[in-house]
UniProtKB/TrEMBL annotation:
This is Uncharacterized protein. Signal peptide: none annotated. Residues 1-43, 105-138 are annotated as: Disordered. Residues 724-792 form the POP1 C-terminal domain. Residues 498-590 form the POPLD domain. InterPro entries: Pop1 (IPR039182), POP1_C (IPR055079), Pop1_N (IPR009723), POPLD_dom (IPR012590). Residues 105-122 have a biased composition (Basic residues). Residues 23-43 have a biased composition (Basic and acidic residues). It is found in: Nucleus. GO terms for cellular component: nucleolar ribonuclease P complex; ribonuclease MRP complex. It comes from the Eukaryota. The keyword Zinc does not apply. Pfam families: POP1_C, POP1_N, POPLD.
Amino acid sequence: MPKVPPQAGPSKQPARQGKPIHRTVDLLKKNDDIKSEGKGKGKEKEILGDVTGLVDEVKRLPGMIFVEKFAEARALEIHAFQTAIKAATAQANTRAFQSLPRHLRRRAASHNPRRVPKRLRSRAAAEIDPGDDIARKHRKQAKLRAKGSLRDRLSRTEQFRLRQRNKTWLPTHIWHAKRYHMVNLWGYRLPLTPTLKSFRPAYRAGRRRAIAWDTSYYGILEIEGLREEVLEMMKLVVAGQFAGAKYESGARMACVTMYQHNSFPRGLIGPAEILWQPNEGDHKARKLWIRLHPSIFNDVWDTMKTASGSRQMTGVQPSANKARADIPTQVRDLRGDVESIEIMGPKAGKVLQRVLRLCKSERGVKKEFFDSLGRLNDPAAIPEGTVVGLKVYDPRLNFPPPRFNDSERAPLPEQLLRARHVEPSAELAQSSLWDEDVREDLSKATFSKYQLDARRHRLGAPGSKLNPLAQDDRIPVILIRRAVHSHTNPNSLESFHGFTLLLPPGWTMYFSSSLVYSNTLIGGLNERKVQHREAGLPSFPEYFGAVCEAGKKWEAAKAATEKETWDRKPPGKRVQWESLRTRNPFVPNWDEVMSRTSPSPEENTVNGPVPKRLVMPWLLASPFTHHLKSGHSSQDLLAMMNAFRTQRGMPVLAKDKASELFKTALIHVEINVLGRGSPGDMAMIYTLSALQREEWIGAYERGSLVQAGDISDLQQLGESIPAEEEIIGYTTTGNISLSRGTGHGLGAITLKGYLDLLGATERGSGEWKGRLLVRVRNRDGRVARLCEIRVVS
């Protein structure tokens, strides 16, 4: 066999020899051999390195240690070591933007390192994925949008004005838009709720500290004319007390209800606040402001024009006295001319004293009142509706104001006794904010923020407060004491008290910034609505569905949103209303409820049969509900309505209107759950007959005797769904009440159903006598709950 010649190819590399690892025993033996050969001292360091030094150090150590003393001596080192471990762990599990407090975080911070503070930008940039180009794409798209458009040639103010073509921004819109969910309502862009959790924080702020809202979306109608003619015009459209020395002096604000011209008790428009200008000297003309919700401003404007007898913006009312005929009755629109902030909570007075700096020209009762704000533990100590006119310095001069802490000591009892209680008066209510020229002059601040910062920089010390100069603005404000409570029990623990601050245009943002820095929470529309529900007072227009146009629009918009959300869900994931026997899950069907409350045979005999037609519910005002009894008939109700119309100079209603009024009347009620559960939105309210009432009361009292795991009698009664004929009303909204600790809600029931409940209550006995009991079932629930209701007034 021939020998195969060697083939060319890569040569094999020799194996790499590793570094030998010597044992310590071998090194010591080698060291002894070197010493015996006499090669000199110190050679062991070349072989052992630092091993000998380590042995020498060990020889100098004590034979034993005291662990406690050793640990105390090394406590700082141990603490630093533990802190470093925790910091390393946290840094490995969190991003740079997450180290900020929640209220300082921004949504874009996870993609853009410029959205975090400067000290964290290097770390944030290192944490971002190199392939993440979201921020760069947004910048590129913004440049493309701006290229070729007019925006690069428009100022920022003009750009903002273009964005308000179909809506109006609040003065604090820029601040709110970064922190709140915004929504378009009533022609404004309004903050709905904060992006952070706010249900419990807002309640705690209203109960313990202070919470504020920008309410500049409320509009003001100004009416000026002779007193007699103004009263003659107002009494045809207003229900409630607003005249007399108590209100006409300007010392107090009146809360009334507006109606269409000469249409009481129907034609409800909505609630309003009336404020008279204090009369200075012997002026024949009087001026008053009507503060209105934006959803009803146009309706009231048209009604006032109708009442004044003119279709123009300024109406003239003819006078019998020719000497006074030269003073016309004028109606003016002051929307945008007067801004407002509402602040509620027990510390509202103390917060205002920190934010406002009273001018030195304010003396007498005004200075006494302002000084007393710092001693107030609760604004409830001031009479409700008190009006105070003050003149204060520019809040930016004192920015930031002193923060209010919960740990501050309350005033001593002897200090409260020495404090002089200032009563409402015309002198206290005087303010130059009523002057149109003053409001126009103050619409723009004299000094810009840049100029004030330059003045502060010249002082040298950081955080120094500026002393007011003669050129600085003096801002007139009107402070109104307000309350959110049920009129049947104004001093209850569920009430909220605070102030409304009326300001010239352009100053709301400056005052709001000071409020934020004084540890005051800023709320949205949802927080304001929840506060009204906690106090047992219906807020407008959410709780006025079906009884006024603004309520109908709100109800329809809410129903459309809920219906759209329900339609988007697949059939297996949404509530099946048919299986729960819920016929009207989104909007109350008052036609069906009221068609079942037919008049009695006696009423049919007197008034004749009533033809079936579309019902128009109307709200029975609170003053009349106090006079209702179980035996009230439709004629009694008509007599009460005609008595009011006669007092206001309106023609009486015909007798054939009695049955229709009685049938379509609604009453606002407050619902408290007895036991478990809470009412939700659009829950159905069922009546209880006298027999059913006793059965439910017995089951409720036996509930505490049920053993664990057993079904109580109350649960068994609730599982039987009541008949639709027993529905007498619906809840508007409900939830767990943080004030009461139980389920709570607000709703409306028919007048006929309320009178039937009164009759069943009078036949009761014991502690349950006089308590109105009903059953409430949620629209998506199968169990009815026993509840107690009270009339809201």
